User: Which sequence fits this backbone?
């Protein structure tokens, strides 16, 4: 896909989804400026992005809450649009440290919007989450489904940002904003060179399964076997990270001719249970995944999958990669990089 918007600022571009987006932008012919404070990532991911993209990208080490730094980036780099991934994302951590989540996710986005407004850059794609739907009563979940009562600061931080972005777009019709509500991103680039590298013990299902498969963890705890789902375990809409980032390029493309505040679900429209994910991963990896069913995790919902019709109609976007490809790519990344980006050969020459 070729984009007319040429110079893109990617906040959080060293992270899991941001690094895949930075690569997709390089491949689409864009100039990429990454701003990341590396609080949950490493510069090695960007070295690999530049290697895969065959082109250098511009890396600024810094914090999205640093207004002076943002001002200098917008002054120097002639940015056309921003993909805003930077933020904290652990639901459990947000319960123990809410101020860090409101500061980073809410204040960070506020500072970014102020600097964008001052610089006259008014095209923004924001990483929101299906978590804003809370515990929905009906499946699939469409953008018209009411946002739910949220049980954790992480989810509230995403909803607060969506709400003030909507206010901003109403206040000034020169803004073009997309809030993309991700379902469950998984998988990795097919090269196996970039992927998800969680610090410590993973919270999310796929990184946990991957680390069991590679022998770093003994077994998976399946949180709840007594949900009213087809096998008793929780059901989610897992989406390949490459499909997800393609949705961002489609959103950027749409924002060229579309003002206001827009919400799009990014999911596949299909739900899989935890046990189905375990089986699919076993097929992909050839390894067995020992697991134990344990009590439900507090705050978890029974099921969630996307109604994808709005993104199809308005962005001409649809996820094309199936479950097996997600699992094969997740396994390739994990098996080639058992310690993530650590202890890896460095290719930092290509990051400026
Ligand atoms: P990630 O932690 O891998 O990436 C986030 C990046 O932002 C990291 O590189 C981190 O160092 C950087 N960062 C954090 N705070 C920063 C700050 N103040 N200034 C500059 N850089 C900062 O997470 P991810 O999975 O790539 O998620 C990206 C975005 O998507 C996040 O906003 C997250 O909330 C959202 N999201 C993720 C998921 C998911 O399951 N991965 C689901 C829904 C929404
Ligand atoms: N699960 C387990 N064992 C684990 C981890 C997860 O059984 O060790 C189960 C969960 O109970 C759930 C499913 O696997 O049924 C998926 O859990 P994840 O933690 O991978 O994902 P969640 O759906 O709970 O939440 C994720 C992100 C949120 C985001 C949400 C919607 O963590 O930030 O998707 O996008 F908001």
Assistant:
């Amino acid at each position: 896909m070729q984009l007319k918007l040429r110079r893109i600022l990617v906040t959080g571009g060293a992270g899991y989804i941001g690094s895949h987006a930075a690569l997709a932008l390089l491949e689409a012919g864009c100039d990429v400026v990454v701003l990341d404070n590396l609080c949950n990532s490493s510069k090695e991911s960007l070295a690999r992005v530049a290697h895969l993209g065959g082109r250098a990208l511009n890396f600024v080490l810094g914090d999205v809450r640093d207004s002076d730094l943002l001002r200098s980036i917008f002054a120097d780099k002639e940015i056309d649009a921003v993909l805003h991934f930077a933020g904290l994302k652990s639901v459990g951590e947000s319960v123990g440290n809410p101020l860090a989540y409101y500061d980073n996710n809410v204040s960070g986005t506020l500072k970014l919007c102020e600097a964008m407004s001052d610089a006259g850059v008014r095209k923004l794609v924001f990483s929101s989450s299906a978590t804003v739907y809370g515990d929905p009563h009906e499946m699939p979940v469409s953008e018209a489904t009411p946002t739910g009562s949220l049980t954790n600061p992480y989810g509230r931080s995403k909803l607060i940002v969506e709400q003030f972005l909507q206010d901003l777009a109403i206040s000034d019709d020169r803004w073009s904003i997309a809030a993309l509500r991700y379902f469950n991103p998984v998988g990795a680039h097919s090269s196996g060179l970039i992927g998800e590298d969680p610090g410590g013990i993973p919270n999310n299902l796929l990184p946990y399964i991957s680390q069991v498969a590679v022998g770093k963890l003994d077994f998976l705890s399946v949180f709840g076997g007594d949900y009213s789902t087809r096998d008793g375990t929780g059901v989610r809409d897992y989406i390949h990270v490459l499909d997800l980032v393609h949705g961002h390029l489609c959103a950027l493309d749409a924002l060229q001719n579309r003002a206001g505040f827009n919400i799009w679900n990014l999911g596949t429209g299909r739900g899989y249970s935890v046990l189905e994910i375990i089986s699919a991963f076993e097929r992909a990896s050839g390894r067995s995944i020992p697991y134990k069913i344990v009590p439900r995790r507090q705050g978890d919902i029974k099921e969630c999958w996307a109604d994808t019709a709005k993104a199809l109609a308005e962005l001409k976007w649809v996820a094309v990669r199936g479950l097996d490809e997600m699992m094969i790519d997740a396994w390739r990344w994990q098996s080639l990089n058992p310690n993530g980006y650590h202890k890896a050969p460095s290719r930092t020459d290509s990051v400026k």
Observations:
- The radius of gyration is 19 Å.
- Residues 89, 91, 129-131, 182-184, 203-205, 208, 220-223, 234, 236, 274, 297, 300 surround UFG (ligand 2) (CB under 6 Å).
- The longest strand covers residues 123-129.
